[in-house]
Amino acid sequence: MNHLRLFSGLIVILTLLTCSQSTSPDLPPDVPDDAALNVLVFSRTNGFRHKSIEPGVEAFKKLGAAQNWTLSFSEDSTIFTSDHLKNYQVVVFLNTTGNILNTSQETAFENYIKNGGGFVGIHSATDTEYDWDFYGRLIGAYFASHPQVQEATVRIKNAQHPATEQVPNVWQKIDEWYNFKKPVADYVNVLAEVDESTYQGG
After folding, report:
1. What's the predicted TM-score (pTM) here?
2. What beta strand segments (E) does 65-185 contain?
3. What is the third-level CATH fold of 9-196?
């Protein structure tokens, strides 16, 4: 049975301020605690397209307004250049699928991450770029399948992390729970996981 991991946009996005620092000139600009983030939300699909992308965009708009973030939304892969990406502290893959970047765009994104840029992968971001080793290590696991949408129990694994310290240790959610091709990589700091005994198809 493959391990499952909950990818919660709200939880994960709160971890972004832990990004590494670098002296590279391509480093995304530092953000003081009280400053606005510049966030790129990217939702290109070259496979299955989730209907939840549009509601997800609206949710980010509301979250951005509440947090004073500057948000850019795009499905244009040509913006993945070093000159453009350095304008953002965070890049979000919102339900992306399939091969969405060419080789030069992948290189620009790799350099962005290596220079301290933040990344959030939501849901089918794990169903993206299966042949790109760097991305596979970044995302931690690749999508294999999922059962029907149903309720399951989520348990917090790391309650000391700032993203989870105010979240209940156990809670229920109706969602599309993913099975992964392999267990989540050992280097991934899993903050929460779904209890596979509480639903069918895990």
Report:
1. 0.83
2. 70-74, 90-94, 118-122, 143-145, 150-156, 170-175, 179-180
3. Rossmann fold (3.40.50)
